[in-house]
């Protein structure tokens, strides 16, 4: 009995140490991945790509059914590997045309969130107030339809929205004129930074309007602009670029954001992703 009691006490002590260690970690969330990171791999072999993600410790994926699979099949393949799909995506035109169909697909995947990553605009680096106004109208409509079907709509910042407007930017205009009951946002920290914004300041300013975060880093020395585009080689391993990753996670935790997705558009993503994951775990 004495040995059992000692063993039991030791187990409790170890559990307490582990809990304390978890509480002390800055990044204490599941490892999430944006499926676009593996855009060169998924079309070749969906199962093998998911096996790679599982081996890396990825348990959340943002994305949709990959080539050769239905939403039902893809969800099953992910679940067999312990991977959930809390968020999926949809194209702007597709969402305007039939948001209910997009919501149904999201529900099949098990996704609570559906993000849109681009607002169509005519001039590269010249996003206009008129285009922002149209987006506001469309987003409110899309978000309402999605909410009625159990899905939260998130617009994914892409950098060009930070065109100056009045005493702020067109992004400020979009946030202020979209209904918070219907429209939330995904903070892509690289694109926000590249567009001239401070990701931490955005989180502080708009708080719970942000529901999701894309974790990526910008090569040191690269200057941003309002085009929403930069050479793929400028995506670097988390923690090696210009962005204050710890500051972002610290502020996002205060807000209550629970889903973070690594997105690496670099040609050497397969080399960088394991290092990015190790960096997050080290925080």
Task: Give an account of the 3D structure.
- It is globular, with a radius of gyration of 20 Å.
- It has an 8-stranded parallel β-barrel with strand order 1-2-3-4-5-8-9-12, surrounded by 7 helices.
- It has one domain: Divalent-metal-dependent TIM barrel enzymes (TIM Barrel), CATH 3.20.20.
- The protein has 11 helices and 12 strands.
- 45% of the residues lie in helices and 17% in strands.
- Mean pLDDT is 93; it is low at 1-21.
- The chain is of the alpha/beta class.
- The relative contact order is 0.12.
- Strand 2, helix 3 (71-79) and strand 3 form a beta-alpha-beta unit.
- The longest helix has 23 residues, at 2-24.
- The chain has helices at 2-24, 46-56, 71-79, 92-97, 99-109, 129-147, 170-177, 189-194, 199-206, 245-255, 269-282, and strands at 31-34, 58-62, 84-89, 113-116, 152-156, 164-165, 168-169, 183-188, 210-215, 217-218, 235-236, 259-262.
Q: In a few lines, what is going on in this structure?
A:
With 283 residues, the protein is of the alpha/beta class. 45% of the residues lie in helices and 17% in strands. The chain contains eleven helices and twelve strands.
List its salient traits:
TIM Barrel, two-stranded antiparallel sheet, globular, alpha/beta, disordered N terminus, eight-stranded parallel barrel, 283 residues
């Amino acid at each position: 009995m004495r040995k059992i009691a000692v063993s039991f006490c030791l187990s409790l002590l170890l559990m307490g140490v582990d809990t304390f260690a978890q509480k002390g970690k800055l990044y204490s969330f599941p490892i999430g991945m944006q499926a676009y990171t593996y855009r060169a791999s998924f079309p070749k072999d969906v199962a093998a790509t998911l096996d790679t993600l599982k081996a890396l410790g990825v348990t959340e994926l943002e994305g949709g059914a990959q080539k050769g699979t239905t939403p039902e099949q893809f969800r099953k393949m992910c679940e067999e590997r312990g991977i959930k799909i809390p968020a999926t995506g949809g194209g702007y035109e597709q969402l305007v045309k039939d948001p209910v169909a997009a919501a149904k697909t999201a529900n099949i995947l098990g996704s609570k969130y559906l993000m849109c990553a681009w607002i169509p605009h005519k001039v590269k680096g010249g996003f206009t107030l008129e285009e922002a106004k149209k987006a506001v109208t469309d987003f409110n409509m899309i978000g309402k339809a999605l909410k009625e079907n159990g899905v939260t709509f998130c617009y994914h910042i892409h950098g060009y929205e930070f065109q100056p407007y009045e005493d702020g930017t067109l992004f400020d205009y979009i946030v202020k004129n979209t209904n918070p009951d219907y429209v939330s946002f995904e903070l892509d920290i690289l694109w926000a930074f590249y567009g001239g914004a401070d990701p931490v300041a955005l989180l502080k300013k708009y708080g719970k309007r942000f529901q999701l975060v894309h974790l990526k880093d910008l090569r040191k020395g690269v200057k941003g602009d309002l085009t929403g585009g930069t050479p793929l080689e400028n995506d670097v391993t988390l923690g090696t670029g210009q962005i204050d990753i710890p500051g972002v996670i610290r502020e996002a935790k205060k807000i209550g954001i629970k889903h973070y997705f690594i997105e690496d558009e670099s040609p050497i993503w397969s080399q960088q992703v394991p290092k990015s994951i190790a960096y997050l775990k080290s925080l």
